[in-house]
Amino acid sequence: MSMRRTVAAIGVAAAIAGLGGAAVYAATDSPGMGEAGPPGHHGDGPPPWAQPGRDNDDPATVHSESVRRDVHGGYTTELTQVGVITALTADSVTVASTDGFSQSYALPSTLKPTWAVNDHVSVRATRSGATATVSSIGEASTAGQ
């Protein structure tokens, strides 16, 4: 086979492979193809399984941080932690997890503490800059501790 035919054959094979790859990509990543969700999630906001307020916690999780898209096109950093209260004031609470992680949280003025130092709690919070603010706090189950 001549050099020119070899180059032409390679060019044709590359074009076919490229078109085939594009067709596969388009078929698997196009809106309206089955259930929305990663990969290929299209639409406004997070997918249905990641909506704020949805209870999707793993009971073995000790602490976590996730960044989610909010409804205004921005982002919200959400924190969860299970542990023991090590410090408590009228405007803050500090929680330590079994793995040694400790986090201080601001308490909103509308949230009145009903817990005490040494209580086992589950915390949900949001972070803005360096400040983590409690959105909910309650008695923790023994899972994950």
Written account of the structure:
This protein is of the alpha+beta class and 145 residues long. The protein has a domain at 48-139: Beta Barrel (OB fold (Dihydrolipoamide Acetyltransferase, E2P)), CATH 2.40.50. It contains one helix and six strands. Strands 1, 2, 3, 4, 5 and 6 form a six-stranded antiparallel beta sheet that branches. A hairpin with a 5-residue loop joins strand 3 (92-96) and strand 4 (102-106). The chain is globular, with a radius of gyration of 25 Å. It comes from Mycobacterium dioxanotrophicus. Residues 1-26 form the signal peptide. Keywords: Signal. This is DUF5666 domain-containing protein. Residues 30-64 are annotated as: Disordered.
Q: Structural class of the helices, strands and pairings?
A: alpha+beta
CATH class of the domain at 48-139: Mainly Beta
Number of helices: 1
Residue windows where pLDDT falls under 50 for at least 5 positions: 22-43, 45-56
Overall, the morphology is: globular
CATH topology of the domain at 48-139: OB fold (Dihydrolipoamide Acetyltransferase, E2P)
Helix/strand order, N-terminal first: HEEEEEE
Largest sheet data: 6 strands, antiparallel
* Estimated helix fraction: 10-25%
Organism: Mycobacterium dioxanotrophicus
Protein name: DUF5666 domain-containing protein
Region (Disordered): 30-64
Keywords: Signal
